[in-house]
Amino acid sequence: MPHPRFYGTFPRIIDHYVGELGIIPLELAVHKMTGATAQALKLKDRGLLREGYRADVTIFDPADFRDRATYADPHRYPSGKRTSVIVNGTIVVEDATHTGALPGKVLRRDRNGGVG
Fold first, then answer.
1. Residue 107 domain-assigned?
2. Tens digit of pLDDT at every position of the chain (116 positions)
3. Which of 3, 34, 58, 105 stands 20 to 30 A from 85 (CA)?
């Protein structure tokens, strides 16, 4: 059984810390999940929407993006009827429904610290 945050880490931050508590602005939360993480992991062409970068994009409504996974039922996707995810230019989730597409790949470091 995975931990509930396996499915709900980012929705929990958006809903709880950005929405409910208001202790972090949405823009900073998104940056920490994307650009800052890519920079910390030394992923040179990821984490930002910039020409020449590999962009995986999540489109969501912060007012309806909540973690629903629990310890008893950890395999629950977050809420968000208008949530869509694009990976490598392919729509993977459209209006909160998985399309069946699996265009992603595991990133591995080479001996020089590069990712491929």
1. no
2. 899 899 889 999 999 999 999 999 999 999 999 999 999 988 888 999 999 998 799 999 999 999 999 999 998 888 999 999 999 889 999 998 999 999 998 888 877 777 76
3. 3
Structural domain includes residue 49: yes
CA 107 → CA 42, 48, 49, 65, 97, distances in Å? 12, 17, 19, 27, 25
Question: Is residue 105, in this structure, part of any structural domain at all?
Answer: no
- Number of independent structural domains in the chain: 1
Q: What is the DSSP letter of 34?
A: T
Question: Global pTM?
Answer: 0.83
Q: How far apart are the first and last CA of the chain?
A: 30
